[in-house]
Specification:
Low-confidence stretches: none
Strand order of the largest sheet: 1-3-2
Strand content: 5-15%
Largest sheet: 3 strands, antiparallel
Order of helices and strands: HHEHHEEH
Number of helices: 5
Radius of gyration: 20 Å
Helix content: 55-70%
């Protein structure tokens, strides 16, 4: 998936150079606006990529959270809810839908029978791998712009 040609809202060369009224604690509104714009641009790209892969953005985020945060042990549904910043019952419904789509499987926790753990299926792994590749490409494309913006926040 190629990055769409989008016009930059303003030239980034001025980021971090503008201060308001000579105040030492001035806020660089342009840099903050540029940063938020770049985040939204990436999120929009991500949402479109997920939909093109047959997933909702929340399903993609769940796959990524499960894979990224379950290196030592599988995640519980409660932990997934925390990582997705949703309520437990919302995570349960999401896991139900993703299990029906064969993206996830549930595992009973051996130590606590009340806890349900989740892990990716082969199909879930394949979807996540494909999406992760194009997301990394998009981040590589945007990294110079994001770096420039983030560096402007470090200035005294």
């Amino acid at each position: 998936m190629a990055r769409s040609k989008q016009r930059e809202p303003r030239e980034l060369a001025l980021i971090g150079k503008r201060q308001t009224h000579g105040d030492a604690a001035a806020v660089d509104y342009e840099a903050l606006a540029q940063f938020r714009f770049q985040l939204r641009r990436f999120l929009s790209f991500s949402e479109t990529a997920a939909r093109n892969a047959g997933l909702t953005p929340q399903q993609h985020q769940a796959l990524l959270a499960i894979k990224g945060f379950s290196t030592a042990a599988p995640l519980s549904v409660g932990e997934l809810a925390e990582l997705l910043l949703v309520r437990h019952h919302t995570a349960v419904e999401l896991v139900d839908r993703m299990t029906k789509l064969r993206l996830l499987e549930r595992i009973a926790d051996e130590d606590d029978s009340r806890r349900i753990l989740v892990k990716l299926t082969k199909k879930g792994e394949q979807k996540l791998r494909m999406l992760s590749k194009i997301h990394l490409q998009e981040l590589q494309t945007a990294s110079a712009t994001l770096t420039k913006i983030l560096q402007s926040f470090r200035r005294p």
